[in-house]
Automatic annotation (TrEMBL):
<keyword id="KW-0547">Nucleotide-binding</keyword>
<dbReference type="GO" id="GO:0005524">
    <property type="term" value="F:ATP binding"/>
</dbReference>
<dbReference type="InterPro" id="IPR011990">
    <property type="entry name" value="TPR-like_helical_dom_sf"/>
</dbReference>
<keyword id="KW-0067">ATP-binding</keyword>
<protein>
    <recommendedName>
        <fullName>Orc1-like AAA ATPase domain-containing protein</fullName>
    </recommendedName>
</protein>
<dbReference type="GO" id="GO:0004016">
    <property type="term" value="F:adenylate cyclase activity"/>
</dbReference>
<dbReference type="Pfam" id="PF13191">
    <property type="entry name" value="AAA_16"/>
</dbReference>
<dbReference type="InterPro" id="IPR041664">
    <property type="entry name" value="AAA_16"/>
</dbReference>
<dbReference type="InterPro" id="IPR027417">
    <property type="entry name" value="P-loop_NTPase"/>
</dbReference>
<dbReference type="GO" id="GO:0005737">
    <property type="term" value="C:cytoplasm"/>
</dbReference>
<feature type="domain" description="Orc1-like AAA ATPase">
    <location>
        <begin position="8"/>
        <end position="189"/>
    </location>
</feature>
Length: 862
């Protein structure tokens, strides 16, 4: 018999396709991402390993730098970027080790510092000290992009990521990011996945592959099952020198449906006991009763039977080793298995037995050894298929599982020491199954913190929810309360990161956090809880609850004189000023924020806020300044906000800054600039799945397009944006109603304009969002005039004018005065019109290039 690991059957066309991808990527002329798809056991790994082996032996020139990472499904939660880190680690142990480490140190230190066993402890500690407290996802992406660019300029570069259907969300997003970098010329990202799992789980990988495919940046290669000829060829090699009858080959091909893994498993099952010297099937009551029955057996059940038979054939020591290995994970360290065996075998004996099993190639494959932080060097192996692991794990009884997981957790904790946060999710799984619930909750909290430091916010949220579900198992007392406070705060921060304020758990977390924070006199946690309650009220359109939360923060700041609480209090009061249309108060609070927080604030509070206070102050201050009659200053502040947001490189912050900039330029009537900002906003929002801001870009971009002459396309875009925004937020809808009504009215779509104004005024009445109220009244007056009701129009325009004077909202006042003056001129009241407009215009000492000032100037000059 030829060992299965040495057999490679067919796939000539597939190997050629991979070579074509490699040459295209190296020349910069083809897709940079290639995905090999097949169902479980379909031969993905075998194909990739065979092709890489041929590449290494036949490549001309400098040896390629090859990174190989494996996506795995952990017991409880995903470690962000685990396959990427594994791929980088393998590159650091390859033929160009020194060059790779040097480039990572220079260009991607936030990645290098996370690679175990690459740097010595002193170098790693020094590098940690030089890094920021937390990593932003865009920053990490950019670092890796730069590093790969530099490496690929010197060496051909290949990144292989197996089983992407198991990848965590950050890894998928990073793959998408790298594939979109058209400047890459010598990089091939080669992945594998199971298509059925991607489809049934609605995995993000599905949309990434589809989107990149439409852009010509991704190619797919689906592995078909082995044909009957392939199966016959494999059987002939496997059973050589004996001859296998064609009938048996056909039966095996039919029963396994050509799945390579199932074919191999069946061959092992039949080997040495079911075939006679003529290659005919020998009857065996435990399997089938006669030849010709194989095709009638269901593959999944029969595979399970074959797995159990293989396990039964192992000796007792190997079964014990593999059962504990299954508790460690799909890939396992020999040292962990030795600990789980609790003295039954030495680590050396475990290592030797695993090596022997890996050489057989049926259950295990060898992996690269690893060095733990405590200096332990341990070999590693991986199960050849998840089904083997599941069947072996079932061998452990309930009591034995608890014992095994506790022992594994204790050894990992000792081995990693102070660096155990790197494996916090893994440790949490072992502690939970070992019934050590306090430690499981603590490790999940650590894992959530690590995920947030890597900008893996949805994963952090999942980890926190998992920890909270285990909290009930932790005994009560002060220690539990402190642990719960940390968890509730982390949960609120995680909710904020995904803007999940509509989730039922959000208000429960905020209220409980507030209760715990008061009990423990934790001011920072109190601010976090109150901010969360404010945001929940905001997305629900509950103005009273927003004001109550803001008032509590203000009271807390006054009692404690805590500077952060004071900063947040100013920001919430700024929001309230925006809501009620008090532009003077808005600007005063924005000005104070800019004095108190010229740079960053606490990163967790910034997440709960949804933005950095200084950036928010620039944006809200710009809105206030435009209303107060300072359009030039408003434009300078949104420009500053956009610059700061780009520096922070957090996509949602950049999107928000682009929207505010587009709002100010819309108010100034600068359609070309709005069009530019809207396109950038929509592109960014599509890339990062920011649906709210994509809708906002559609509204303002549609207005700009219609204003610039592309009327029908612009209005269609505007309508789509208004509807999209309404699905996610009520805040901002009154301003969008103004923009829509203005666009519709300017081209004579009176009914649509009337509907937009009615919707805006209804929102003012129901939500109390009064900032755009004067403009809605003015537009209502214009519509009454179009409808032939000049007296009603004049009354409405006067209402708008009076309201703007009460608020000192000179930006809106100029518009109301211009509309009223135009009406008076039509009625022959020229002197009154001129006097009204002149009185407003004389106040403005800037912004003379804006549409409103130019229009008013023309009317005065008539």
């Amino acid at each position: 018999m030829t060992p299965a690991s040495r057999l490679f059957i067919g796939r000539t066309a597939e190997l050629a396709a991979l070579t074509d991808w490699w040459e295209q990527a190296r020349s910069g002329g083809g897709a940079q991402l290639g995905i090999v798809t097949a169902e479980a056991g379909g031969g993905k790994t075998a194909l990739l390993e065979e092709w890489v082996t041929r590449l290494q032996t036949r490549h001309q020139g400098p040896a390629p730098v090859i990174g190989w990472g494996q996506c795995v499904e952990l017991f409880d939660a995903d470690e962000p970027y685990l396959p990427i880190l594994e791929a980088l680690s393998s590159m650091c142990h390859g033929p160009h080790r020194d060059e790779v480490i040097a480039v990572l140190r220079r260009c991607a230190s936030s990645w290098l510092v996370q690679l175990p066993g690459v740097l010595d402890e002193a170098s790693r500690a020094e590098l940690w000290q030089a890094l920021p407290r937390s990593f932003s996802r865009p920053g990490m992406f950019a670092e890796l992009d730069i590093a790969l660019t530099e490496l690929s300029s010197a060496y051909p570069l290949l990144l292989v990521l197996e089983d992407l259907h198991l990848a965590d969300r950050p890894t998928v997003e990073l793959v998408s990011y790298l594939a979109r970098r058209r400047s890459r010329v010598n990089v091939l990202l080669l992945g594998s996945c199971r298509p059925a799992e991607v489809l049934t789980k609605a995995h993000r990988l599905r949309s990434v592959i589809q989107d990149l495919g439409t852009r010509g940046l991704c190619q797919r290669l689906r592995l078909e099952p082995w044909s009957a000829v392939d199966v016959a060829t494999f059987l002939a090699d496997w059973h050589s020198p004996r001859t296998v009858t064609p009938e048996l080959a056909i039966e095996i091909a039919e029963r396994t449906e050509g799945n390579p893994l199932f074919v191999v498993a069946l061959c092992r099952h039949l080997e040495g006991r079911h075939l006679d010297d003529e290659g005919r099937l020998v009857l065996d009551d435990q399997v089938v009763r006669a030849a010709g029955r194989l095709g009638a057996l269901g593959v999944p059940d029969e595979v399970r039977l074959m797995l159990q038979r293989q396990i039964d054939d192992l000796d007792q020591a190997d079964r014990a080793i593999l059962a504990v290995a299954a508790a460690v994970g799909e890939e396992f360290a020999i040292e962990s298995v030795g600990a789980g065996l609790t003295g039954q075998l030495t680590v050396v004996e475990v290592e030797e037995r695993c090596a022997a099993l890996a050489r057989q190639g049926s259950l295990l494959r060898s992996s690269e050894p690893v060095e733990w932080p405590d200096g332990t060097v341990t070999g590693r192996c991986r199960f050849t298929h998840q089904m083997y692991r599941e069947a072996l794990y079932d061998l452990l009884g309930p009591a034995r599982r608890v014992q095994v997981h506790r022992a594994i957790g204790a050894r990992l904790t000792a081995g990693y020491g102070g660096g155990s946060e790197e494996i916090a999710s893994e440790l949490a799984g072992h502690h939970e199954r070992g019934r050590d619930y306090p430690q499981a909750v603590a490790e999940l909290t650590t894992a959530a913190r690590v995920a947030m430091s890597r900008a893996a916010y949805p994963e952090a949220h999942d980890l926190v929810r998992r920890a909270l579900s285990l909290l009930e198992q932790v005994p009560g007392g002060p220690g539990r309360e402190r642990l719960e406070l940390q968890l509730r705060r982390a949960s609120v921060v995680a909710v904020a990161s995904v803007w999940g304020w509509r989730e039922p758990d959000a208000i429960v977390d905020c209220l409980r956090l507030s209760e715990l924070a008061v009990a423990h006199e934790d001011v920072s946690a109190q601010v976090t809880a109150l901010l969360g309650l404010h945001n929940i009220a905001m997305v629900r359109g509950d103005g009273k609850a927003r004001e109550d939360a803001a008032a509590e923060v203000l009271s807390l700041a006054q009692r404690t004189r805590d500077p952060t609480a004071g900063l947040i209090a100013h920001l919430l009061q700024c929001y309230i000023g925006s809501r009620v249309g008090d532009c003077a108060a808005m600007w005063e609070h924005a000005r104070r924020i800019l004095e108190l927080a010229p740079g960053r604030t606490d990163p967790e509070l910034a997440l709960v806020l949804g933005e950095q206070p200084a950036v928010a102050a620039h944006q809200l201050g710009a809105i206030a300044l435009w209303q107060l009659g300072h359009p030039d200053q408003a434009r300078r502040h949104v420009a500053a906000a956009l610059t700061d947001a780009r520096t922070l490189a957090i996509p949602v912050d950049v999107a928000r800054a682009l929207w505010y900039a587009a709002v100010i330029h819309t108010l100034c009537g600068d359609a070309p600039r709005v069009a530019e900002l809207a396109i950038e906003l929509e592109d960014l929002s599509v890339e990062h799945d920011l649906q709210l801001w994509r809708a906002g870009g559609s509204v303002l971009g549609g207005w700009a397009a219609a204003t610039l002459g592309d009327v029908e396309a612009g209005l269609a875009r505007l309508r789509t944006g208004v509807a999209g925004w309404a699905r996610f937020a009520r805040l901002g809808s009154t301003f969008h109603a103004c923009v829509a009504a203005d666009a519709f009215l300017s081209i004579g779509h009176v009914e649509e304009a009337r509907s937009a104004v009615a919707a805006g005024l209804a929102a003012v009445a129901s939500d109390g969002e009064r900032q755009s109220e004067p403009e809605l009244l003015r537009l209502h007056g214009e519509l009454l005039l179009v409808s032939g009701e000049p007296d009603s129009a004049e009354r409405e325009l006067n209402r708008a004018l009076v309201l703007t004077r009460q608020r000192s909202a000179r930006g809106w006042q100029l518009r109301a005065a211009t509309s009223l003056a135009r009406l008076w001129r039509q009625q022959g009241r020229t002197a009154e019109a001129a006097e009204l407009l002149a009185g407003v215009l004389e106040w403005f000492d800037e912004g003379h290039d804006t549409r409103d000032l130019r229009t008013a100037g023309v009317i005065v000059a008539l």
